[in-house]
Design goal:
Layout: H1 10-22, H2 26-38, H3 42-46, H4 50-53, E1 54-55, E2 58-59, E3 62-66, E4 73-77, H5 80-93, H6 114-127, H7 137-152, H8 155-162, H9 167-174, H10 178-187
Antiparallel strand pairs: 1-2, 3-4
């Protein structure tokens, strides 16, 4: 399949969370929740260190990560579900602040690879009956951004949250079209 992968809908996010919990996939649940809340690319998710998420023995409410692709920092909020799953995973995982949050199975000094992350995302979406061809790691990055845009119509906020330098990139990224603009206009009365 060529083209952008779909964002998940809120009910699909909850279905994946339920599927991961029912299969006792604690690490994967933490990874999924982090991906949804952070809106980061897969390469940034897998490179995160414990110190990026933990301060004073607790999961941060907000974190900042420098994106690999752009070299620019992006800040994100970690909601309760993500904080709880990350706390549970890190308590089981152990390690120091300088360790990767999601270590490689074969070499704990390294992080899991982006290809392994992509295979996991394929498993998660197939686990709830979705076609893996329609979704990918970038679907997780798009999910919260598209939900925020649909709820608020605020492109500038989504631009900041994704770390885009140009609003045009955000428009293309979200697939905003004339129909979206007209729908927003219809909701606004003067």
């Amino acid at each position: 399949m060529v083209g952008a992968k779909r964002a998940l809908k809120p009910q699909q996010v909850w279905a994946i969370r339920f599927w991961l919990d029912s299969h006792r996939r604690m690490r994967d649940r933490a990874m999924f929740d982090l991906a949804i809340d952070s809106k980061l690319r897969g390469c940034d998710i897998v490179r995160m260190r414990i110190s990026d998420l933990v301060s004073g023995g607790r999961i941060r409410l907000r974190a900042t990560v420098t994106q690999k692709k752009t070299g620019r920092p992006v800040q994100f909020e970690l909601l309760e579900a993500a904080r709880a799953s990350l706390q549970a995973w890190l308590e089981r995982r152990g390690g120091t602040l300088e360790d990767y949050v999601f270590p490689s199975r074969t070499n704990h000094e390294e992080h899991i690879g982006t290809r392994q992350y992509a295979r996991l995302v394929d498993e998660w979406v197939e686990g709830i009956g979705l076609r893996r061809e329609d979704y990918g790691t970038h679907s997780l990055r798009r999910t919260k951004a598209s939900i925020i845009y649909k709820a608020t119509g605020n492109l500038r906020a989504v631009q900041l949250l994704l770390g885009h330098t140009k609003i045009e990139s955000t428009v293309r990224y979200l697939g905003v079209d004339v129909e979206d603009a007209l729908t927003l206009a219809e909701r606004t009365e003067i």
